[in-house]
Design a protein that fits this description.
alpha+beta; 3-stranded antiparallel β-sheet; about 375 residues
């Protein structure tokens, strides 16, 4: 086969070469949902699966040798298809999505931003040249007949359906499935479920509730590993401010034997729950810890790199919390506003004045 014939075949996906740049198709729609009313795990999992079903039927195609594939266009969009070599079944061009185009460029050493703005003929010439430079294989992940990802042939698929099945089974075995709630979920290039256990929450102070649980993260398109992160979820803000220990996150890369990943995930989830429970115990102990010299502790924050204004802000917050705590406790002890005032004066006498550092409690985490 002559070089000219090979070049002609490499433009197989193109019937008419457009003069304007080819564009990739859009990726799956990104969705982030902060559930105002937390939903059950089953409901949240179904929302994720419904979003995937809406995106199109999933399928995988192995490109054993990228040199035998061609870059062209289908209906004005970037597309790839196998070169119609003798004995090979013809295939329809498969449109490339945004992420898949970037991943393909990375694999062949082409800068995506440069290729994207070239005229169509130069786009095809550059991409097809890059695809013929060296032998390499790839896994094409499809949705609705479009290439949503171009990943290594070593990629181990652990897709959301299986991840959710494993997590649901572990929750059920641990007795948490009925009581756990999903406070937030995301779907798209990455999937995330934020799971907490409201029944095992604790109050740090009035209207300041902390729950513990897990963040379950995954990506079917090579954007991230499977990740299980123990979290403590503090509801002190209306946006659901949370705290977590990132070093406790457990990550499993999509490489190797999918069965091994499946079993590893099944083992990791209970361990992450134990980590999260340990975090909530630390919060509980911290909330009961009495700082004897609060002013000295606040000044000591300078050693951690905090500036003067930040240290002053911490001091003001602690002072407000002390005042609220004294008022709440004394109102309960003495009944009513008049009793609360008497209680404050009583405490001032006990501690040598109302401004002393021992007049209230300070949480180690505040």
């Amino acid at each position: 086969m002559t070089a000219a014939a090979q070049a002609a075949e490499r433009t197989a996906p193109s019937i008419v070469t457009p003069s304007s740049p080819l564009r990739p198709r859009r990726d799956q729609h990104e969705r982030w949902i902060a559930h105002t009313h937390p939903v059950s795990f089953e409901e949240a999992a179904q929302l994720v699966l419904d979003a995937h079903a809406e995106d199109g039927v999933r399928d995988d195609v192995v490109a054993h040798d990228v040199r035998t594939w061609a870059f062209g266009h289908a209906d004005g969009s970037m597309a790839i298809a196998p070169v119609p070599l003798p004995g090979r079944e013809p295939m329809q061009p498969m449109p490339l999505r945004e992420l898949a185009f970037s991943q393909l460029c990375t694999r062949i050493g082409a800068p995506p931003s440069y290729i994207r703005d070239l005229p169509a003929k130069l786009q095809m010439a550059n991409m097809n040249f890059g695809m013929t430079k060296e032998r390499q294989s790839a896994l094409l992940r499809l949705a609705g007949g479009e290439v949503r990802a171009v990943v290594s042939d070593r990629y181990a698929a652990l897709d959301d359906e299986l991840v959710l099945e494993v997590v649901g089974d572990v929750l059920d075995r641990a007795g948490y499935l009925a009581e756990c709630r999903v406070r937030a979920s995301a779907v798209g290039a990455s999937t995330l479920l934020r799971i907490t256990l409201p029944a095992e929450s604790m109050a740090v102070r009035k209207d300041d509730i902390i729950e513990w649980g897990l963040d379950i993260g995954n990506s079917e398109v090579g954007v991230r590993s499977v990740q299980v992160t123990p979290i403590t979820y503090r509801l002190v803000c209306t946006n659901g401010m949370r705290a977590w220990r990132s070093e406790a996150a457990m990550r499993m890369r999509h490489v190797g034997d999918p069965k091994r990943l499946h079993e590893q995930l099944r083992d990791v989830v209970p361990v992450a729950f134990a980590e999260a429970r340990g975090d909530i115990d630390r919060w509980r102990r911290a909330s009961e810890f009495l700082i004897d010299e609060a002013l000295e502790e606040i000044e000591g924050l300078r050693a951690l790199g905090l500036g003067q204004s930040e240290v002053q802000a911490v001091g003001r917050e602690l002072a407000l919390e002390r005042a609220a705590a004294v008022e709440l406790v004394d109102a309960d002890d003495h009944g009513g506003a008049e009793g609360a005032d008497d209680g404050v004066r009583h405490r001032e006498r006990d501690h040598g004045g109302g401004a002393g550092p021992r007049g209230g409690r300070g949480s180690a985490h505040d």
